[in-house]
Design a protein that fits this description.
CATH class: Mainly Beta
Shape: globular
Radius of gyration: 13 Å
CATH superfamily: Pleckstrin-homology domain (PH domain)/Phosphotyrosine-binding domain (PTB)
Strand content: 35-45%
CATH topology: PH-domain like
CATH architecture: Roll
């Protein structure tokens, strides 16, 4: 994997766990059409990666600061919480662009 220092967008979001259904703070970096997440901002290796090519990004109607990433190629729907609506829209816009990215 090449360096993630040239990420399009980076910052903290809360991600709902796959097994323990709690939202936990994770540091995210968007690079190309991959969304990497880390336990801490200083971590070098990501805890996981979400491939965004052909994914669907939707903002939740019930919670204005929540978005979901889904797709037939993904093992599950990822639920993310941003700090506020403005931050959520910023992430949603960039993630939507990344779903069509050629890399």
């Amino acid at each position: 994997m090449s360096t993630l220092s040239d990420a399009t967008l980076a910052g903290f979001l809360q991600k709902k766990g796959q097994h323990v259904k709690l939202f936990r703070s994770r540091y995210f970096k968007l690079r190309g059409n991959y969304l990497y997440y880390f336990k801490e901002e200083t971590d070098i290796r990501p805890r996981g990666v979400i491939p965004l090519k052909d994914a669907t990004i939707t903002m939740c109607e019930k919670k204005e600061n929540q978005l979901e990433i889904s797709g037939t190629h993904l093992p599950r729907t990822y639920e993310l919480l941003a700090q506020d609506v403005h931050d959520c829209r910023k992430w949603a816009d960039e993630l939507k662009k990344a779903t069509n990215c050629a890399t």
